[in-house]
Write a structure and sequence with these properties.
The chain has 20 helices and 13 strands. The longest helix has 22 residues. The chain has 3 domains: about 230 residues, 3-Layer(aba) Sandwich (Rossmann fold), CATH 3.40.50.10490; about 190 residues, Glucose-6-phosphate isomerase like protein, domain 1 (Rossmann fold), CATH 3.40.50.10490; about 40 residues. It is globular, with a radius of gyration of 25 Å. The strands form 3 sheets. The protein has a 6-stranded mixed beta sheet with strand order 1-2-13-12-10-11, sandwiched between helices. A 5-stranded parallel beta sheet has the order 6-5-7-8-9, with helices on both faces. Helix 7 runs parallel beside helix 12 and helix 7 packs antiparallel against helix 15. The protein is of the alpha/beta class. Bound molecules: 6-O-phosphono-beta-D-fructofuranose. 6-O-phosphono-beta-D-fructofuranose binds next to loops.
Length: about 525
């Protein structure tokens, strides 16, 4: 049995430091605070100075990391051990981005050759589609790509496709994830089947939503071009080659990956095919190199917790969740192109660390992963920032910003960044009561509200990769402190099973469902489902 981190003296030492923290006073008494609480990882500047912690708290949290032995946990992952114990799998998304010639041992085998040969096939295919060497059944160039997938087989490529808008010079990509027919309709309306390539992305090739959507899109294609066209238009990205073949995908058009790549960690695998087609293999490779750069930063600083930027970020999360009672973390990129990043992080963080049983199968006694949410700034300022500034909840915020716009004008970009800096400052330093003002009490900003600011020169493919890896490793370290398995996701299974039974009942009307509340809803649904919408 592993020891419980909360019963260690290191944990008690952090607890003894919980007390009132006054950010303005901390800055006043410590002229080096802004500098000393800022880390650099690759191109990312990570300023943690406006968080509710002192040097003592930070040092005590570093001791918690040592006590939890997060370094050994990291090394076990990097050695390719089966650290995803409940599924008996290694966890090696880091191997997807190691450079050529660097061995990557996973489950006792060097997988670097497999990884680079898969990357080579991906790059060739992407180039063929982009250049028009690979054509449609009617001999035309593909103008559009539809990626069908959900969860990790959608959120990563969809987020990155938006994030790298300025680098796209290939066919337009569209993403179908929801089994709601409105999603397929909205995407397919306006697309020409004769010029559309379809990628079915599913690690398992059994996910109900993806399979139903793949069938629907195949019908659309067959209706437009005939059954013989399927081979030229459908490709699959999966670890289940056999199921992809049974669906009708040509074996040469199946891009594989491995069970040691978790769905939410799969952007760097062939799951990124749509992105590689859109931005080209060179930019895709730059994104992988950005991820690797952060992997290496973590490797180098694994024994120095406070020099390890993702670990510092993770320790802040532990501090807020377990000592200050925060239940959520907001992520607010001041970049329209990164607006889907919070949704991507929701799966990465909440599917990884939303656990209440530890590695030994015991109920955890601590809060684990926070609720992650957010959206692009400045839009959020005109929606939920009221609560951040004057509400009653403690919500640590991650602001993400860039020195330069990747295109567009620097002047409006300056206005955007002024808002980021202003929000972080106003949250931390607030505005005191000024009795002279009408409604004075309503105009008080209490301040002392925490935020981390992550800045980078520009939202390039490399920087995007760095951001993704930064958060991946923060999630890893949080899970390592809490002693949970961040790489399984059993919590999504029950809903799938139940939906299957209910699906049957919706069709045949026989009572498969025993609970009266659900039964009543189903009866209402069955009596209304054929009525036309008024
Ligand atoms: O939601 C559960 C989940 O298994 C995710 O972890 C995964 O990313 C998603 O479903 C999609 O799975 P697949 O790629 O196998 O279709």
């Amino acid at each position: 049995m592993n020891e419980r981190i909360e019963s260690t003296p290191e944990w008690a030492a952090v607890r003894s430091l919980v007390g009132s923290i006054d950010l303005p006073a901390l800055f006043e008494s410590d002229s080096r605070r802004a500098e000393d609480f800022t880390l650099q990882v690759g191109d990312l500047l990570v300023d943690t100075s406006k968080n509710l912690w002192t040097r003592e708290v930070r040092a005590a949290l570093a001791e918690v990391a040592r006590r939890a032995d997060v370094a050994s946990a990291w090394r076990r992952m990097r050695d390719g051990d089966a650290v995803n114990e409940s599924e008996n799998r290694a966890v090696a998304h880091w191997a997807l981005r190691s450079p050529t010639g660097t061995p990557a041992i996973v489950a006792g085998r060097d997988v670097s050759g497999d990884v680079h040969s898969a990357l080579g096939s991906l790059a060739r295919f992407a180039d063929d589609v982009r250049s028009g060497r690979r054509t449609s059944a009617t001999g035309q160039r593909f103008s559009d790509v539809v990626n069908i997938g959900i969860g990790g087989s959608d959120l990563g490529p969809a987020m990155a496709y938006d994030a790298l808008r300025a680098f796209r010079d290939g066919p337009h990509c569209h993403f179908v994830s929801n089994v709601d027919p409105a999603n397929t309709r909205a995407v397919l309306d306006g697309l020409d089947p004769a010029r559309t390539l379809v990628i079915v992305s599913s690690k398992t090739f059994t996910t109900a939503e993806t399979m139903a959507n793949a069938v629907a899109v195949r019908e659309w294609l067959v209706e437009g071009l005939g059954a013989d066209a399927v081979g030229a238009h459908f490709v699959a990205v999966t670890t289940n080659t056999r199921a992809a073949g049974a669906f009708g995908v040509d074996p040469d058009a199946v891009f594989g990956f491995w069970d040691w790549v978790g769905g939410r960690y799969s952007l760097a695998s062939a799951i990124g095919l749509s992105l590689a087609i859109a931005v080209g293999p060179v930019a895709f490779g730059e994104m992988l190199a950005g991820m690797h750069l952060v992997d290496e930063h973590v490797n180098r600083s694994i024994d120095e917790p406070l020099a390890n930027a993702p670990l510092v970020h993770a320790l802040l999360s532990v501090w807020y969740s377990n000592f200050l009672g925060a239940e959520t973390r907001a992520v607010v990129p001041y970049a329209h192109d990164l607006r889907r990043f919070p949704a991507y992080l929701q799966q990465l963080d909440m599917e990884s660390n939303g656990k209440s049983v530890d590695r030994d199968g015991r109920l955890v006694a601590l809060s684990t992963g926070p609720i992650v949410w957010g959206g692009a700034g400045t839009d959020g300022q005109h929606a939920y920032f009221q609560l951040l500034h004057q509400g009653t909840h403690l919500v640590p915020v991650d602001f993400i910003g860039f020195a330069r716009p990747v295109d567009g004008d620097q002047e409006r970009h300056d206005a955007l960044m002024a808002n980021l800096f202003a929000q972080s400052q106003a949250l931390a330093f607030g505005r005191p009561l000024d009795e002279a003002l009408p409604n004075a009490r309503h105009r008080v900003f209490p301040g002392n509200r925490p935020s981390t600011v992550i800045m980078a020169p520009a939202l390039t493919p490399s920087v995007l990769g760095q951001l993704v890896a930064f958060y991946e490793h923060s999630v890893f370290f949080q899970g390592a402190v809490w002693g949970i398995n961040s790489f399984d996701q059993w919590g999504v299974e029950l809903g799938k099973d139940v939906a299957h039974g209910i699906g049957q009942e919706l069709v045949d009307g026989r009572h498969h469902v025993s609970d009266p509340a659900t039964r009543r809803l189903i009866e209402w649904y069955r009596s209304h489902r054929h009525r036309s919408v008024e």
